[in-house]
Predict the 3D structure of the following.
Amino acid sequence: MENNIEIKNVSKKYDKFELKNISFNVPKGVIVGLIGENGAGKTTTIKSILNIINFKGDIKIFGKDNKKYEKTIKQDIGVVLDDSFLSDYLDAKGIGKVMQSFYKNWNEKKYLEYLQKFNLPSNKMVKDFSSGMKMKLKIAAAISHSPKLLILDEPTSGLDPVVRNEILDIFREYMLEDEERSILMSTHITTDLEHISDYIVFINKGNIVFDMPTMDLLDNYGIAKCDEKNFEKINKDDYIKYRKEKYQYELLINNRKKFKSKYENVNIDKASIEDIMLLNIKGEK
Amino acid sequence: MNNIKALIKKDLLNLASYKVSIIILFVGVCLCTLNTNVTNLAPIVIITMIGMISLSTFNYDEISKAEKYLLAMPNTKGDIIKAKYILVIGLTVLGGVVAYFLTILLSYIMNKINQNIAITIDYMSLLYTTIAGIFGIGLVESIQIPSIYKWGAERGRIQMFILVFIIFLIIGGVAYFITKFGFDIDITSAIDKIKEYAIYILIAITTIFYYISYKVAYKIYKKREY
Amino acid sequence: MNIIISNSSSVPIYEQIKQAIKTAILSGELKEDENLPSVRNLANDLRISFLTVKKAYDELEEEGYIKTIQGKGSFVAPKNIELMKEERRREIEKHVEEIIKIAKIYNINKSEIDDIFNYIASEEDFDIN
């Protein structure tokens, strides 16, 4: 078994939104970033994986069906949800006490070490925490039972860059402890992913647009900029999408090297994940 | 089973963050009711409070948006519902037991302190009201829980007040009609007659209500999505 | 060993890592049989995907610079003198090509280039013989 998560043909229908038959894997030992606009289907995907909502299709975690073996599987998953936590009316110590009774492998010592490392007060109610502190507490609570898989929904949203970097360091450290571990994180802060993710799955309007190594995206994708005259000379197969701006055309390219050798007088830059996402959503073909 | 314990533990610890104010409230209520010389009132008031407190754990969960997180942990929806029912029933019964002994204890102390007042307690009648209180409040709770699952904790609570209000209104209305039209009923003897069986009727009704309540709550919650 | 990664460079990141390690090996900074950082650790320290480091290591192994032993990690491969020489030559050739390209653009002939070469060589104490 090479994958910690296998998602096959998962669909979910809401009144105004539909997740359409999506499939992707989270291999062992990697960090997968799930990107897309708000409402694109990231959270729905995560909720399906956690079997919080009813969905159609097949999801296997650690090789086991996530509905049939829900409880056993979840003993080995750590979860951080953007807008939901155990209780706002407990202090960090109380949170630990409760978490301990949920997880067989809970390591109280480790948890207390994390609290200390993250500079979290142990006797202040969660509701009085700042958003950065609260997120760190959620993470401490999610990893103190040494899960094999971390599922994170927007773990860095609303946090300042310093805290965000601290949090990304925590995830890196978590990954280094055991090579079989994986992280699946959804985010709309794509710059975070450039430095941490191994794969990126891009969801738009309930469909998967692409699922590929971050390395390939950053090394091969590019943004070409040119005027109308040059744009007309460019073959349709040589770009993915284009967008007409006021003074220029912007083209999303998936092979910088090839494009450069073919169209020498067109300027081409590296594309950030944000560029790729934006042009995919807003661009035309 | 372990995670049901954990779920209950979470609720108890949530409530424990206000333990001091809860204890002060209890003793205060007891002292007030003892002074009115209607000692049997104390258990009823305390059980009602406990009932409301146990239902307030729904509020804690709602404000913390805990349910989604709980479902992401090794819990099923069934576990969460079971834990809530055990907690609410358990706390209500416990509240009754505490109220019973607290009333006795406080009246004893007060008699010692102030020789001018002599609070006499009819233990049987106190026990009777306590049990009636447990099952009476239990009945209200059994209606409350599914409606909280349906409409949320805040609206559920408002509903509780409306429910209690309606019950009083009905009792008041019946009493009004009886006195106004001068039905020739000897109320005291009628109550005495009912009293013999009332407690059994109440226990039976509450048990049936809880059974239905659990089924309904489970059905509602099963469909709910976060 | 220094590995400096530029995100704005058009050179792919795995290529940059490859170059840095190659340079360290060719300059003798990394000695034969010396242990290289593990893929995970290096990726972690550089804050990039481990797949990028893996690609760099794989290609270095293919080219004979390093060898990887399952469970033990990667080491600097025993030096293949011919390979090293070849690599060094190629490095210099690349620069010479660049010089010729520029010389062509500005119409500078070979004897002028020779003069420049000799002048700088003497300045830098480079032994021509």
In short: The interface with chain B takes residues 47, 50-54, 70-71, 74-75, 77, 79, 81, 83-90, 94, 97-98, 101-103, 125-126, 151 of chain A (CB under 8 Å).
